[in-house]
Amino acid sequence: MIQRQLILMRHATADPGRGHDRDRELTASGRDDAHRVGSWLAREETLPTLILCSTALRCRQTHESLIAGLGREIPVGFDARLYNAPAETLFDSLTELSFAKADESTVGENEIVLLIAHNPGISQFALDLAAAGDEATSLRAGFFPATTARFELSGDWSSLARGSVRLTRFANVREI
Predict the structure, then answer these.
(1) Which of 22, 29, 141, 169 is the Cys-Cys partner for 150 at CB 3.0 to 4.6 Å?
(2) What is the CATH classification number for the domain harbouring 143?
(3) Distance separating alpha carbons of residues 155 and 108, to the nearest angstrom
């Protein structure tokens, strides 16, 4: 059975901004934090094979800085449904991977997927995945900007369900 990993990441720190919420930009420290997360993933040898990302500007900029920190390009799917999405929509975006295609290859065969999205959906999704016990306890602190949670999943993305994964790492950008 294939071991898959899911990395959930909240976008990095954004300016409070004026105008449309979708157009809020990252702060300079937010860009640095996203770059730091990318460098950390590269050091940990946890290189995503696919990134799913909200279309909000702050998420796209988080992706750009993360990629710079990783030092390599990773296929990315920008999805407008992920903008301020509730946990259920985030769940659906991952379970659909088993049925989607990208660049002539089956997306469902990717072993490490990184999802960049927003609070409160990302926090609730992580809690739903962990579902109980000690794993959920650390997640209750919430996702500050540029926080990541790494989970392991046995089986296909379509088997993703509440409590079906194991939390292997929960880290605020200041801890890496």
Answers:
(1) 169
(2) 3.40.50.1240
(3) 10
Please count the residues of the chain: 176
Determine the Cα–Cα distance for residues 74 and 111; give it in Å rounded to an integer: 13
Interacting residues of 24 by C-beta distance below 8 A, sequence separation 6+: 14, 15, 16, 17, 56, 57, 58
Instruction: Report the domain count for the chain.
Output: 1
Lowest mean pLDDT segment, chosen from 55-69, 84-98, 101-115: 101-115
φ, ψ for residue 85 (rounded to 5)?
A: -75, 145
How does pLDDT run across 28-79, given as a tens digit for each residue? 999 999 999 999 999 999 999 999 999 999 999 999 999 999 999 999 999 9
b/e code 1-12 from CB counts within 10 Å (16+ = b): eeebbbbbbbbb
How far is residue 95's CA from residue 143's CA, in Å, rounded to a whole number?
22
What's the rounded Cα separation, in Å, for the pair 173 and 12? Answer: 9
Domain limits for position 159: 3-175
Q: Within 13 Å of residue 115, how many CA atoms lie on the same side as its CB?
A: 31
Dump pLDDT digits (tens) for 128-156.
998 765 667 788 888 999 999 999 998 88
